[in-house]
Amino acid sequence: MPKIPRSPALDYTRDTSEKRRQFIENETNASLTHSSHFSLEPESLAGNIENFTGVAQVPIGFAGPMLVNGEAAQGEFYVPMATTEGTLVASYSRGMRLTREAGGIKTTVIDDAMQRAPMFAFADAREALAFGKWIEANFDQIKVASEETTSVGKLRDIEQYAVSKLRWLRFNFTCGDAAGQNMVSKATKAGCDWVLDNYPGNVDHFVLAANLDTDKKHSHLNSLHTRGKRVVAEITLPKQLMTDIMHCPPEALFKQRQYSNMGALMAGSVNNGAHFANGITAVFIACGQDVANVAESSAGFTYAEILPNGDYYFSVTIPSLIVATYGGGTGLATQQECLNVLGCAGKGKVNKLAEIIAATVLCGDLSLGSAVVANEWVSSHEKLGRNR
């Protein structure tokens, strides 16, 4: 079977990408006319993609302005959203108008951790227990060995989970402005190498990962603890403002919240909100995040109260928001532009981006929830969406 053209020395060039397009067109009789138009330089893509052939052009719209009163994100932001779903940007903008007129969204990053969870097997449960106690006693040495591989990663702690004669060690790192999966894998391996070289007992088997870190998939463990950033966005909305802008009073939205909580419980959902994934995915694509992390990042919790004066308190908590402002796809051309719009490009900005995304999610959930209650959900899609 013919192989896709490669050039070890000149793989990231316009000429090589053109050869690949011609190859795919010849092999499939399909046209790659539109995917061949791009402004970025192929040389900038090394480390981001293999067999670079062209681009997938996803439309970008800006929602906002959104007012955020965060610890890291403060002020008004125009939020880039890459999507092909009509009504999405308009809906988020509506939520941003409501929250802006209410004084802005308070945002807080309350925890930060990225994991790798190696598994060790032993002859029996008693030996596994002894190993666990040895790990606790030697944490400082493991920390030193792990951190030798990274200039920014810091080993925070090691959780332990045991089943039968098996023991998982869940290494928790902070990773600066990187998402950190690769950083943490390398650091955890170094720590485990030290363990295997120094543990006085016998380890029957070791593997660097055995699904407890749940990379690129949801887990309730990460909802209870944290993977990436654990972020809260919250706001108190005046009753009259909600009625004027969203066409539904707090009582109606709170009643719908109880129905939605029960529906999520019955369905076994990992999220009792409306559509966290929509806002997160759209911002992820625009800002160069690893979109597969939406599988974890879209889990979350909404919480609401009607206050004694009739106002509406509403919050969203995202327990596993995996974001970066440095490394990965964040350095590419259009992604840099979008991060610059938010003031989130480069080092020292990751918590700011996390807070902006959490605030965006809150706006989207308020808007969609209100549209459902006000019976405007279907009509808005008919007017702006794919049903037009």
Summarize it.
The protein is α+β, with helices and mostly antiparallel strands and 388 residues long. The chain is built from 13 helices and 10 strands.
Defining traits:
globular; 3-hydroxy-3-methylglutaryl-coenzyme A Reductase, Chain A, domain 2; Alpha-Beta Plaits; single chain; ten-stranded mixed sheet; 388 residues; alpha+beta; 2 domains
Largest β-sheet summary: 10 strands, mixed
How would you state the average pLDDT, rounded?
94
Derived structural class: alpha+beta
Helix content: 40-55%
Q: What percentage of the residues does DSSP assign to strands (E)? A: 15-25%
Domain module tally? 2
CATH superfamily of the largest domain: 3-hydroxy-3-methylglutaryl-coenzyme A Reductase, Chain A, domain 2
Identify low-pLDDT runs. Answer: 377-382
From the coordinates shown, what is the CATH architecture of the largest domain?
Alpha-Beta Complex
Number of helices: 13
Radius of gyration (CA) equals: 24 Å
Order of helices and strands: HEEHEEHHEEHEHEHHHHEEHHH
CATH topology term of the largest domain: 3-hydroxy-3-methylglutaryl-coenzyme A Reductase, Chain A, domain 2
